Amino acid sequence: KKAIIDPSLFKYKVQPIKKELYETVIVKASQLSRRKHLFSRDKLKLFLKQHCEPHDGVIKTKATSIAKYNLAEQNFSYFFPDDPPTFIFSPASRRRGRPPKKMSSSL
Q: Which portions of this protein are annotated as coiled-coil regions (predicted)?
């Protein structure tokens, strides 16, 4: 098992969008902050409306958004560079007090 690392020990490399005007800096986690309510239900709805569409029962990214942000050229590791998460298997829990339903033999 991997040891759990305290998030406050992380350092972040912040790269500017306009590299010719600003330089890259490394900051501690305590130096970072975010505005509250930056992410909300309304903003999520707007994002989905602008960049996604239903297709055969699945929500997919619109072709215009894929082209605009060059998403076809990126892969999963570009967005998530760390090791993939490992999930512990846990069997489905049964409802308390009720025996599992039995299938009819006439089927």
A: none
C-alpha 72/C-alpha 75 separation (Å) is 8
CA distance 52 to 62: 5
pLDDT at 52: 96
Phi (first) and psi of residue 31, to 5 degrees? -85, -10
Domain assignments of the chain as residue spans, ordered by start: 8-74
Alpha carbons 31 and 12: distance in angstroms, whole number: 10
Query: Higher model confidence: residue 38 or residue 94?
Result: 38
Residue 93: pLDDT over 80: no
Give the predicted TM-score (pTM) of the model: 0.45
d(CA 68, CA 61): 11
The residue ranking higher by pLDDT, 80 or 67, is: 67
Q: Which two tokens stand for residue 47?
A: 């994002």
